[in-house]
Amino acid sequence: MGELRRDPVVNRWVIIDPERAEREAVFPIEEEAEEPIPCPFCPGHELEAGKEIVALGEPGRAPNAGGWWVRVIPDRRPILRIEGQLDPRPEGMFDLMNAVGAHELVVETPEHDKHWHELSELQLERVLKVWQERSLDLRKDERFRQVLMVKNYGQATTLFRHPHSHVLALPIVPKGVDEEIQGVLHYSRLKERCVYCDILREEIRRGKRMLLESSEVIAFTPFASRFPFETWILPKFHLPDFGRITGEEVKDLAAVLKAVMGMIQTSLAFSSGSLILHTSPLQEYHRPEYHWHIEIVPKASKVAGFEWGTGFFVNPVPPEEAAAWLQEGRQARLEGL
Amino acid sequence: MGELRRDPVVNRWVIIDPERAEREAVFPIEEEAEEPIPCPFCPGHELEAGKEIVALGEPGRAPNAGGWWVRVIPDRRPILRIEGQLDPRPEGMFDLMNAVGAHELVVETPEHDKHWHELSELQLERVLKVWQERSLDLRKDERFRQVLMVKNYGQATTLFRHPHSHVLALPIVPKGVDEEIQGVLHYSRLKERCVYCDILREEIRRGKRMLLESSEVIAFTPFASRFPFETWILPKFHLPDFGRITGEEVKDLAAVLKAVMGMIQTSLAFSSGSLILHTSPLQEYHRPEYHWHIEIVPKASKVAGFEWGTGFFVNPVPPEEAAAWLQEGRQARLEGL
Q: Nearest CA of chain A to the CA of B268: how many Å?
């Protein structure tokens, strides 16, 4: 089993997992793996893909048979394993624990090779409902501190073309979320307001970085974007926990996600990237001051070591220009150009 | 001029620079640039490369002529510009300033296409002396809060093969260094000791992650390595500021760097990566509790958005195994196998 190890300076947890397949790619020769044929996520291959944890489908369908709309299965190459004890322990001055957690795969549609903007709003709504269900179910396991949803889209970042996303339950709070929480708490002590609520008011008022506003959420390119065309989706009404969104909010978010992914896909020459759902940690780490949101980075760029080593980013595309470019692409699409 | 913008949640400064050449690569088509021929960093092309800021060379040589060992010139595509006022200002709730700073290029040897492990110890010592000189000189400009040295080696991360490194003077403390400082201060308040001093004692005692120990520094693969074969070099005697190292320490560090880069180059199938010098910030941000060090990440890996979005890394190579692999490569080389 892999280990979770804590960096003693910056308190960052890292998974050290010598059993991973990526290992082959690192040491000694890098090779591109090929997509398996036939696709195990297509209908008719349910048992190859894996026994389902939960599924949405036609009424009365049997588990692991056809007729599903969205299926959740265990990931075949999990970065965290559900079995076993965490066993947190010291090693000299260092801290580690077993890499216990959950790593599930959401097969988002029976249709092979569709981008999110090509799915129907109803289908995206089903995916989001399944994300919510997994968030609510996994938190019953008291070992878990954080549930994360990760969607890698396009070729560069994933082996399987069939639309899918990852659900991870972690026994620790990842550094990225923890930093946001520290920022939220600091701002809240200073101003008695949520920093994300302030950001969304500011973006609505200024407009120049806005992509879309619906009744429930806004989509925009953030002021200090690290990456070209970085996009955030924020709920307009303060809510720390994605697990608590209403059916109306899910429906509205699905429509906005479809539109935003469409703007990104039709406006940019590259078609891969990542989408991550940030939501409040669980148990005693839950923070009512937090504000769940989605961050999209179109393209998992090759980043120079400078940015890794310093946490300091150089972005050649101002977010205002990115917003205008994405809006133009949308306009052209609406006009059928 | 570019802008420095602060993320209002996590206090991360980002450079937004629409004048950068990388822009072409992002939007709309990615293209690999080709190395210019002849190489402007080779002897005989001094004025094409740029007027020198400082140089080490044969006694009595004229500036911008031949006979140099190491030359420092302004970067042709600076991410920060020396001219102009910082003009820090609000934009609604956001904070920004002009991207004022220094961006210099150190041409590390007259010889084209040499890796660091192929340079003589004397030549590496000269490079480190020039880094130190730039650190001491740039801090005279009171606008600057941080000097960073960055060396990208190998093909993947740099346009020019000719050995060179970057010296950056920033008007802000980059998030990566700031996080380390917060960690150092927290640990110091808890234990009245430096966390880096504790780490180096621990690594020397355990040995299983050690690469090299000299009279002045140790090189090892850190306990919670984010990347396969990540390597740190720490001075054995507490010193916050690289600018204050002695001539003896520079000489010793040059020998260790040559040996470590040799281990990395001969043991791994990939030959690119980054080396970053972390040192205490300047002016009122200087911290005597800090401990300067070097971080080497062999290979600027293509990282999935998950890691960007969460600050949570999966590393398939345990640092103990990386250390053993690098040691074996060194042994084989010493034995002439």
A: 6
Chain A residues touching B203 at Cβ < 8 A: none
Is the minimum CB–CB distance between A321 and chain B shorter than 8 Å?
Answer: yes
For A311, which residue in chain B has the nearest alpha carbon?
B176
Q: How many CB pairs under 8 A join A and B?
A: 277
What are the phi and psi torsion angles at A136 (to 5°)?
Answer: -70, -35
**What does the block give as tokens for B330?**
């060194």
**Minimal Cα–Cα distance from A217 to chain B, Å?**
19
| Residue A180: Cβ-neighbour burial (10 angstroms; 0-12, 13-18, 19+) | buried
Task: Identify the CATH number of the domain in which residue A60 sits.
Answer: 3.30.428.10
- Three-state SS annotation for B235-287: ECCCCCCHHHCCHHHHHHHHHHHHHHHHHHHHHCCCCCEEEEEECCCCHHHCC
The H or E element spanning position A71 is strand A68-74
**The dihedral of CA A86, A81, B232, B327: what is its sign?**
positive
For A:233-262, CB contacts with B below 8 A are none
Q: Could you give phi then psi for residue B8, rounded to 5 degrees? A: -75, -15
Q: Give the domain range for residue A199.
A: 3-334
Residue B297's H or E segment, with its range, is: strand B293-298
Q: Give the best residue of B31, B165, B310 to mutate against chain A (max A CB count within 10 A).
A: B310
Residue range B135-147: mean pLDDT, rounded? 96
Hey, CA dihedral for B105, B108, B114, B116, is it positive or negative?
A: negative
Dihedrals φ, ψ of B197, to 5°? -60, -40
* Whole-number Å distance between alpha carbons of B17 and A318: 7
User: What is the count of structural domains for chain A?
Assistant: 1
Q: Which of B30, B79, B310 sits opposite A148 (nearest CB)?
A: B310
pTM of the entire predicted model? 0.90
Contact A225 B30 (CB under 8 A): no
pLDDT of amino acid A18: 79
Question: Quick check: B298 contacting A, CB < 8 Å?
Answer: no
Which two structure tokens, joined as six digits, stand for A30? 């890098």
Q: Quick: pLDDT tens for B282-312.
A: 999 999 999 999 999 877 555 555 666 667 6
CB neighbour burial string for A137-175, b if at least 16 within 10 angstroms, e if fewer:
bbbeeebbbbbbbbbbbbebbbebebbbbbbbbbbbbbb
For A99-136, how does the pLDDT look when each residue is reduced to its tens digit (9 = 90+)?
999 999 999 999 998 889 999 999 999 999 999 999 99
Q: Which of B93, B287, B177 is nearest to A190 (CA)?
A: B93
Neighbour tally for A65: CB within 10 Å: 15
- Looking at CA atoms only, how far is residue B91 from chain A in angstroms? 10
CA distance B190 to chain A (A): 13
Asked if the peptide bond before residue A78 counts as cis, ω within 30 degrees of 0, the response is no
Beta strand A313-315 with B13-16 is parallel
Amino acid, single-letter form, for residue A57? G
